[in-house]
Structures are given as C-alpha cells and as structure tokens.
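Practice problem: predict the structure.
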Amino acid sequence: MITYIKGTVQSVNTMVSVRSDYLRMGLGFNVIDSTSFTVNEEVELYVYMHWNQEQGPSLYGFRSEEEKELFILIIGCSGIGPKMALGILAQTDVSTFLGAIQAGDVKILSQLKGVGAKKAEQMILQLRSKAESFISSHGVSCVGASQYLSQLSEVLASLNYSRTEIQQVLAYMRAQEFEAKPSFDRVMRDALSFLAKKV
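Answer:
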C-alpha cells in the first residue's frame, strides 16, 4: 500500500497527476485544491486509498499528514464521503474545523457548502470525542480568531453585510495569525478593515 509519495506534478485538472522516479510510474490523486499545484512542481504527498465497491480504488493526496488524518476522521462520519470531506477541507482549516466540532458550533459548520444544520449536528455528535483526541495528540491550537467566528458572523449579519461578504471575511480571518488569545474587539476591527478595503 502506498502511504507517501515524492515526485513531480505532470498534469493538473480536477485531479493531480504525479510521476515518481522511485515508483517509475505516474499516479492520479484527488486533492483538496488542484489549483494550488503547478506542472513540474516537486511535491510530497501523504496518500490515502479509498475503496468503493462500485468504482474500485481512488487515491487521495495531502500536503501534510495532519490533513490526511483529518480527512480520514471526517469520512468516518456516516453520510460523508471522500468528495464531501475534500470540499469541507477546501473551505476551512484544521484548527477552525476541529474548534467548531469541539465547541459544538452548528452555525460555523453549517456555513460550509454542502453542510446544512442537520449534517453539522451529526458531525458534532459523531466526531466530538475523536476531535478532542486529534487535538490532544497533534497539539492543534483551536484558539486565535477561530474562537470568535460564530460571534463575528452574527455581528456582521446584524450590520446588514451580505452572506457572501461574511463568508469572505470568515475565510480571511481563518488565514490570519493572531496572538494566542486575541480580544473579540481586535478580531472585529480587523474584519471591518478587510471589508472597508473591498469597497
């Protein structure tokens, strides 16, 4: 079984084809965001093989072992297949997702495309204890701006910002590096500054 591959990107479309000199062959991988790969890029991927009774094997490639393990954690939730799991990981980061599961934050999870309130509640129910173990074993930090995203979303909605604008702000805030425990005021100021620049 292939669990790791190092090679050169041969082609990029909905999947990424990687050629490994070690294996002397090319393999196609489903990835979180194919647009983040470029042809001739040297890559190292952590590999997961998923078996579907009707379609056979599919290979999934991840830039970090942490992403791969979170993917496996997510597909362990009933009703969530690999395609949806990749979609979830494409919209959020590890700490935000695990923080929302740990906090039981239905609102944050249900804002992910393809995940409604019912599916969010199901994920919280089925993944909470596993998420806590994951956080503990990997030393994942679920603080920073992530702890305020639900509150931030509510405040921006009350200020009549559109759903699209709010989604853009949340994506922006997830990518920011704050001190360990920023105040909500600091997070709110940064969010409003980001929105002001987009006007």
